[in-house]
Design a protein that fits this description.
- This protein is an alpha/beta fold.
- Helix content is 38%, strand content 21%.
- The protein is globular.
- The strands form 4 sheets. It has a 5-stranded mixed β-sheet, sandwiched between helices. Strands 13-12-11-14-15 form a 5-stranded mixed β-sheet, with helices on both faces. The chain has a 3-stranded antiparallel β-sheet with strand order 1-3-2.
- β4 and β5 form a beta hairpin.
- α6 crosses α12.
Length: 396
């Protein structure tokens, strides 16, 4: 059979490269005007216009009228008929699922509670059933799914698709999570830590947009972190990079679930904070603590501020190691705003190796508790077409 692969450097090869560049940009950004596409791809407006017209005609792209600064423009996105992507986020207490098109438009979303000590097999079974019901509501089926992104509250070894740090996610250890979910859905699955997916979302379309280097700290029931270096998530060799929750703050402190003593999580994680109110029936979850702090309760505000100081000390060590220009604070506890962030910032400034006005900018995440879910969708979109091209019509 004669190969149709174009000769490298030929006009056909260049045309395919330009079309792929436009498709990749839309996978990354969702929707762009033709002028914006020219800017991010480096292609001329005429080239972009010709390629958009060609791929719109073949059903790969969709165009619509838009307005930018009072001027009419043509907005471009990947066509929905290309298929759907799925994002799943297992936090410590909730399962969130979203179905979206490849332009990142969410068409169905659901959240259900989780038991604190849940088992992976039962929850993967439940997530498959929930997803099937959600697909029915939008007139789709699993065959329409191009890829699935799964975010878990633990570091993930990318080679094996397993939890890489024992003790960090009980009930999920030793499970080949990627393979398990793929067997249930019969679709490609990509797994990462929720800190990494949260960082991905905040970096691309949240508080970290434009950062040269970014750290993302997810603070809530657990504490975790992620690093974005050179525009890419830095995972380390086994996925454990950025796990700030298990930095030791007090070597004689409480035993952590990871087996160490005095980890940041044992001092500033949700269970540690709520333990300070043991016996108070109105203080069962972090949202209770946040509500009281917002209402002006002095003890609640003090507990959150102390947590901020502990996190700031660990963040200073992180800043000394990787020197980010932005640190984004996400997770449920980030809802406390400056009650948490002001003491965090002060502790970091006292301990980090910075001069005047040289420290990282510490900001609250803008995507809230959906950051990790949106990042799981982005993870799926990034992997659409790996091994099987997203756009079969890009051939000569």
């Amino acid at each position: 059979m004669t190969s149709r692969r174009p000769t490298p450097g030929s006009q056909t090869s260049l045309r395919e490269a330009n079309r792929a560049r436009i498709v990749d940009s839309l996978k990354l950004h969702g929707r762009l005007t033709q002028v914006e596409l020219a800017g991010v791809t480096g292609l001329s407006p005429a080239t972009v216009s010709n390629i958009v017209k060609e791929l719109s005609g073949s059903g790969v792209l969709a165009t619509s009228a838009a307005s930018r600064s009072g001027r009419r423009a043509v907005e471009v996105s990947l066509a929905r008929q290309l298929g759907l992507v799925v994002g799943l986020h297992f936090s410590s207490r909730h399962l969130r699922i979203a179905v979206a098109d490849v332009a990142r438009t969410v068409v169905a979303e659901n959240t259900v509670p989780l038991a604190l000590e849940h088992r992976y097999d039962r929850e993967l079974d439940r997530s498959a059933l929930l997803l099937s019901d959600m697909l029915d509501t939008v007139g789709a089926s699993t065959s329409d799914i191009l890829a699935v992104g799964l975010a878990l509250p633990a570091p993930i070894d990318q080679e094996t698709g397993t939890v890489s740090a024992p003790g960090t996610l009980r009930g999920w250890e030793n499970a080949r999570i990627r393979e398990e979910l793929e067997s249930r859905l019969q679709r490609p699955v990509h797994v990462d830590s929720d800190a990494n997916t949260g960082a991905l979302a905040e970096y691309r379309f949240g508080a970290g947009v434009g950062a040269r280097g970014m750290a993302y700290l997810r603070v809530g029931h657990t504490i975790s972190g992620a690093l974005v270096i050179g525009g890419e998530i830095f995972r380390g060799t086994t996925g454990k990079a950025g796990q700030i929750g298990h930095v030791s703050i007090d070597e004689n402190g409480p035993i952590c679930r990871c087996g160490s003593r005095g980890c940041l999580e044992t001092l500033a994680g949700g269970p540690a904070l709520l333990e300070l109110f043991r016996g108070d029936p109105g203080m069962q979850r972090l949202r209770d603590l946040l509500a009281r702090a917002e209402a002006g309760d002095a003890s609640s505000r003090r507990v959150i501020a102390d947590a901020g100081r502990h996190i700031g000390i660990a963040a200073a060590n992180l800043a000394n190691l990787v020197d980010p220009d932005v640190i984004v604070i996400g997770g449920e506890l980030a809802g406390a705003g400056e009650t948490l962030i002001a003491p965090l910032r002060h502790a970091l400034e006292r301990s980090a190796l910075t001069g005047l006005d040289e420290g990282p900018n510490i900001v609250q995440g803008t995507l809230g508790e959906r950051a990790e879910l949106l990042g799981a969708l982005a993870l799926a979109i990034d992997n659409v077409g790996v091994g099987e091209p997203l756009v079969s019509t890009l051939g000569a």
